[in-house]
Specification:
Layout: E1 16-19, E2 23-27, E3 37-41, H1 53-73, E4 77-83, E5 99-105
Antiparallel strand pairs: 1-2, 2-3, 3-5, 4-5
Length: 117
């Protein structure tokens, strides 16, 4: 069930870069690296551990598609960070499950630990 105060539940207000029946992908509003992408289940669940098997498979499928698209768009990308902040203590700011797909390029510095989510 969608939550009206949750930006990720208002998909029509977002610019979707990839999607399937169960999840969608958008560019991060506060990217830590160019082409930083968020992959989000359509169902409102608080964190990635609350997703079901179908949602996790859909998220993974989109991650693969987005990784390939990012690689085509920017050939300097040679790696990725892939993960989720779960809970306030871990830096989660939007309490709707989502996974970060962060393209990495050789010679970049470390990612900043604190950033808007």
């Amino acid at each position: 069930m969608a939550h009206e105060n949750c930006i990720f539940c208002r998909v029509s207000e977002l610019t979707v870069v990839a999607e399937n029946a169960v999840a969608f992908a958008i560019r991060d509003k506060f990217p830590v690296r160019p082409l930083h992408t968020l992959i989000i289940p359509r169902r409102h669940v608080t964190d990635i551990f609350a997703t079901d098997t179908e949602e996790r498979e859909a998220i993974h499928e989109l991650a693969i598609r987005c990784r390939e698209a990012i690689g085509r768009e920017d050939t300097s990308v040679s790696g990725f960070n892939f993960g989720s902040n779960i809970g306030h203590a871990a830096g989660q700011k939007i309490f709707h499950a989502h996974v970060h797909l962060i393209p990495r390029r050789l010679g970049e510095g470390e990612l900043l630990a604190a950033r808007p989510d």
